[in-house]
Amino acid sequence: MGKVSFKPGTMIYPLPAVMVSCGENEGEYNITTVAWTGTVCSDPPMCYISLRKDRHSHQIISRTRQFVINLTTEQLAAATDWCGVKSGRDFNKFESMGLTAVKAPDVNAPMIGESPLNIECEVVEIKELGSHDMFLSRVVGVLAEESLMKEDNGLFDLESAGLMAYSHGKYYSLGRRLGFFGFSVQKKKRK
Amino acid sequence: MGKVSFKPGTMIYPLPAVMVSCGENEGEYNITTVAWTGTVCSDPPMCYISLRKDRHSHQIISRTRQFVINLTTEQLAAATDWCGVKSGRDFNKFESMGLTAVKAPDVNAPMIGESPLNIECEVVEIKELGSHDMFLSRVVGVLAEESLMKEDNGLFDLESAGLMAYSHGKYYSLGRRLGFFGFSVQKKKRK
Fold first, then answer.
1. What is the CATH code of the structural domain delimited by A15-185?
2. In this predicted complex, what is the ipTM?
3. I need a surface site. Which of A124, B2, B19, B53 has the fewest CB within 10 A?
């Protein structure tokens, strides 16, 4: 358990690498990729994304105050990476990546059709922190891929979506299931 | 790409499931597990954890305003789950789980020796959001398992730590590496 000291840094991993879609009309539709995202409150459901000020999407979302978080999968790995490297000032990212823009029902922004789960968000506060501004947001709607809804029990089978994780500069599939919430205190069934 | 609508909820996944350690002295040392955590700014390095008001650790951190985020691994899956289910009011969690409390060098809190990476945090603001309060924090130090530091190139080999992800109520190992940041625009090497 010997430890070495690093300079303070951003080392919380693994994280999601989500595609954030925004824009008021088709000509403005854009996608950016962020790992600085997460849930901050369960009730009401609230989340955040943090964006650098010079990002094209920062300008758009600062004005529209609405966006969609699109979860990403192994199949979307290359598109996810590309949308995080290139700028919407230079490319129509939906067209370049062959992604389908679907108007979100509850916010003024597009969703990515190929994503298994779309989270509609409304900004409640923009906090300037330094390199990044945090867009603290309310979740106002969730759209999910129909085929992941299990008919037999009505549960949502997110596992089958093949979500992708991001850790220290690399993308990974999810691997072996290690347990479920509460497994460490589950009573053993008598035989 | 048919979509079904859910009620708004907390569906950003996969997330880390980190053990948060806190307490001013050994008698008070406690551990809680949170998935509502992430990075909010790169420079200065800032992160957050969100805690329910009734959590024992909420009381401690509200007073000390310092804590440590301990990354979790496949080996720590059961301890991670247990620390999220049980309360520090009823158990000494370090002792119960056989975890080693190591005084953090830069904050008034213990770190978990068995974690591959410990992130020392200082609270800058507590935001009341509803079910959860968000502890917006500065990263003031990072300690890493010595054996993960590669002698040949000085890089930190986080991949070998075997980090664990949390997604929709289940814990997973990380699986196949899908690419690295920027892989979608990497120039092919000529043969």
1. 2.30.110.10
2. 0.95
3. B2
